[in-house]
């Protein structure tokens, strides 16, 4: 059988890794795919030939649109990232009857519904394993490995930059800004780190996981997103004293009222395996009714870990190119005409526990007023730490853990507590998840 011909859009970190892995492991990959898979063309404005042995054996140009129009190419691999021109290139490739492999989570999360509809109409595949958690095969696990299960919830550390920052803050007592600067110097964070530290990157990935888990359309615009820039080393320390670790978590859960979609800093009990995932590593915990909890751990970024997922998608596409399009694995796990219209919950309606840190006057009656407000709002306190005020200071830090309560109730209580004359500044609020069978 003749080899599958691949056109590669982008020869950056992931594109170069894909080229090298596919070339190095060509024999093993062909044995698994049942035919050879060869990159014959690439489009890139800039690349380093020295790091790509054998690149001179393929045709490399700078016109991505010409590449997707090339009739000799069977599969387009899109690794340029961003929204445009990636969206136009992918849609044009689909219109030309080409299969597509992409690592572009922003593209899938934002335009995936349109892209998958076009692919379904044309009878081609769009594979996107590398779009979530790099080299971890979480898409295949949720879409195929857990297909017998009703998935209850997913919680994931799905951005390595944020996880590196929080790990350094915990292990070395460093400040957020200091660690962020190091992450940028190491290449973990971009010069503009907004997508990473504000949770946008994780929100893209969570939207994809939720769609696969619950059979709902992609709805990135409904993901509640909160960053980690307000987390202090004191918060990290207090969490540790209480038996928790802070992680920047993506959480999606099916409830009787709808689906939760949220990314935010989260306290997790330190005994949980996912709480011990450190540095730039990623992990996704899936709770399902038949199998129970399963944890997927590994490198969430990098040239060859991400290339591992890209090449796996190429093998999947090569295996199914001769299969009737109606009998392929659906893009979003469920048959396109069976997607559900489950509502996405507003954040006000989400129920969780909370960590609260506030600064209050060191005088009688202050705690009584605070606990009265919480009690009137139906909020129960689980634990309290009250520190001695610093020398010469009249304000004392108070840390509280609460039991589960609706976000709207907590918002009301926080506003009332912040209005007290004895409370200084704003209250730091971090949500808590125990990640058990609650």
Work out the helix count: 14
- What is the strand content? 25-35%
Distance between the termini: 52 Å
Q: Give me the count of strands.
A: 17
Name of the CATH architecture of the largest domain: 3-Layer(aba) Sandwich
Helicity level = 25-40%
> Strand count, sense and closure of the main sheet?
11 strands, mixed
- CATH names the topology of the largest domain as Rossmann fold
- Overall radius of gyration: 24 Å
Give the mean pLDDT: 94
Shape descriptor reads: elongated
The assigned structural class equals alpha/beta
CATH class of the largest domain: Alpha Beta
At the fourth level of CATH, the homologous superfamily of the largest domain is NAD(P)-binding Rossmann-like Domain
Tally of individual domains: 3
Name the poorly predicted regions: none
How are the SSEs ordered, and which strands pair?
Blueprint: E1 4-9, H1 13-24, H2 26-33, E2 37-43, E3 59-61, H3 64-69, E4 75-78, H4 86-95, E5 99-102, H5 105-122, E6 126-127, H6 138-145, E7 151-157, H7 160-172, H8 176-186, H9 194-197, H10 200-214, E8 224-225, H11 233-241, E9 244-254, E10 259-269, E11 281-288, E12 292-299, H12 303-320, E13 351-361, H13 366-376, E14 381-386, E15 395-402, E16 405-406, H14 407-418, E17 423-432
Parallel strand pairs: 1-2, 1-4, 2-3, 4-5, 5-6, 8-10, 10-17
Antiparallel strand pairs: 7-9, 7-11, 9-10, 11-12, 13-15, 13-16, 13-17, 14-15
Helix pairs in contact: 1-12, 2-12, 4-5, 5-10, 7-8, 13-14
